[in-house]
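Need residues for this backbone.
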């Protein structure tokens, strides 16, 4: 079907009054895809044969995108009197004036919880990657959820979290021109429009308070809860209209339109803030990031995502310039951070460069089983035990004399078991920490620093000279301090292999009956602390129990006897 045959088909199709809209769409599709550009290549027209009862206004209502363009049809057909057209007369109509064919978008990116309200069922349903989005559908994004809809032409729009947007119109005309209308009820949309020839505004975003229209550009439009509209132009130009007043907004500018008000003058967008203390690697969460100050900024908009385009959002926060951006609740992986300044009108400036950061909290530090924090030991050799970490191939143990680990006693980084025992340590406080090491050699974060002390035994009290009377012996020794008990021993031998008295007392003194046997005796004491830990015995002291009879040398007795005999 070519040439005049196709022309006859068009005329017959348009002159049939009882056809359903489907026939019209089919007819327009054929025009757009093949014939119009073949038969009327110079101007892309279609022919329409007038039948009885037709009027120019009736034809315009039926076939034109905007019925008010009837005067252009009259001009193209050189009609001296637009009210007078006759059956059998042929009119030519420019394709760009016709109602376009609906075109569908496709979900090319989705993150989180996104729902669609389709015209055919009227209920919200989950939206999935590669789903088709038709004209008339509405989209809704939840917290930290985003979605991108892309058309075959390359035009697209991207919805930020907490947005509700309707795709009012998505049409194609003459195979080249595209016309899109979005309605943002609340939230934020970022539109990217491919440049086209012509002067028509091919992409319009409607809000409750304004219309932002562009032919080829990239811009953001936001509607807040008060239905105020903010437009920020990132490339090209955008015309913003409200209450009959139209303002052109250039690249790097933004504009605020409050509901029921005319557009405010455009403002220059602020420069983005830069992070001051962002680390390339974080081994634990939560983590915080602060930013430098930007003059005129009341807030900062900070987005953390898993892609360098900022689409797959995991954290989306508005913070104070003196505040911090908190990172928490994320899995190990690579993330990307972007920030924007927000001025007093609520307009967001351009995005900062993309900053990459790595989060690797795993393998986690092991849980310590022993020793307990602050535990005190009398034994000088200490046992350490900890729980096994599932993705830890080995463990790194450090023991130091100071909390900063500048004086390290043990540094073991090849421990495959979950236990370690030290040799004999000095009497003092010690500090230790343990971390897990993955099979690829990555060392996780250190555990919290633990501490313990090895307590020296109580000092050995020195014994005073015993006080001996006729029946009792009273011995005192050094008072070590409150809560201390004492172990007292007395023996006939200096090595205390046998004792004649072995007892424990609460005071640094003892009184006992004088031994019946004469001779030398040895005594010693040790101290016992409140927990029953006994120190070493001190040096022994000796004293003598003398006979009550006078001591006479044997030689003198013998001499006395000899004298008596002689």
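Answer:
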């Amino acid at each position: 079907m070519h040439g005049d045959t196709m022309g006859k088909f068009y005329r017959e199709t348009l002159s049939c009054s009882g056809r359903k809209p489907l026939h019209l769409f089919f007819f327009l599709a054929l025009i757009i895809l093949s014939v119009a550009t073949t038969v009327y290549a110079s101007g892309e027209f279609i022919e329409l044969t007038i039948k009885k009862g037709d009027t120019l206004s009736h034809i315009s209502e039926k076939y034109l995108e905007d019925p008010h363009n009837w005067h252009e049809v009259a001009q193209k057909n050189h009609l001296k009197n637009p009210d007078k057209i006759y059956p059998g007369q042929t009119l030519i109509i420019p394709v760009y004036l016709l109602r376009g064919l609906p075109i569908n978008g496709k979900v090319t990116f989705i993150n989180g919880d996104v729902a669609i309200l389709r015209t055919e069922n009227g209920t919200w349903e989950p939206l999935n990657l590669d789903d088709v989005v038709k004209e008339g559908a509405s989209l809704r994004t939840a917290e930290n959820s985003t979605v991108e809809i892309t058309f075959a032409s390359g035009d697209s729009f991207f919805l930020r979290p907490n947005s509700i947007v309707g795709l009012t119109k998505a049409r194609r005309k003459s195979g080249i021109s595209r016309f899109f209308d979005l309605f943002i009820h609340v939230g934020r949309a970022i539109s990217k429009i491919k440049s086209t020839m012509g002067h028509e505004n091919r992409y319009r975003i409607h809000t409750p308070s304004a219309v932002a229209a562009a032919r080829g550009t990239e811009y953001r439009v936001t509607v807040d809860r008060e239905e105020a509209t903010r437009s920020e132009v990132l490339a090209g130009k955008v015309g913003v209209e409200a209450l009959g007043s139209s303002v052109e907004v250039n690249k790097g500018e933004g504009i605020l339109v409050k509901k029921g008000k005319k557009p405010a003058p455009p403002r220059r967008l602020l420069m983005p803030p830069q992070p001051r203390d962002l680390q390339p690697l974080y081994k634990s969460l939560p983590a915080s990031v602060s930013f430098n100050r930007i003059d005129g900024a009341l807030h900062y908009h900070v987005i953390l995502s898993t892609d360098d385009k900022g689409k797959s959002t995991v954290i989306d926060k508005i913070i104070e310039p003196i505040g911090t951006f908190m990172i928490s609740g994320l899995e190990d992986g690579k993330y990307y951070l972007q920030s924007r300044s927000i001025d007093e009108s609520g307009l967001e400036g351009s995005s900062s460069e993309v900053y990459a950061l790595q989060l690797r909290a795993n393998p986690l530090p092991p849980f310590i089983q022993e020793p307990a924090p602050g535990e005190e030991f009398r034994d000088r050799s200490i046992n350490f035990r900890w729980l096994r970490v599932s993705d830890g191939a080995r463990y790194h143990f450090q023991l130091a004399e100071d909390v900063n680990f500048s004086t390290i006693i043990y540094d073991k980084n090849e421990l495959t078991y979950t236990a370690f025992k030290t040799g004999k340590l000095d009497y003092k406080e010690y500090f230790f920490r343990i971390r897990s090491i993955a099979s690829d050699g990555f060392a996780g974060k250190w555990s919290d620093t633990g501490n313990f002390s090895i307590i020296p035994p109580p000092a050995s009290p020195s014994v005073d000279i015993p006080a001996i009377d006729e029946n009792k012996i009273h011995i005192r020794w050094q008072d070590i301090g409150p809560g201390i008990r004492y172990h007292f021993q007395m023996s006939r031998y200096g090595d205390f292999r046998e004792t004649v008295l072995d007892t424990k007392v609460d005071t640094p003194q003892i009184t006992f009956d004088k031994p019946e046997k004469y001779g030398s005796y040895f005594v010693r004491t040790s101290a016992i602390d409140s927990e029953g830990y006994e120190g070493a015995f001190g040096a022994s002291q000796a004293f003598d129990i003398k006979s009550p009879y006078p001591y006479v040398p044997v030689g003198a007795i013998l001499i006395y006897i000899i004298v008596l005999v002689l």
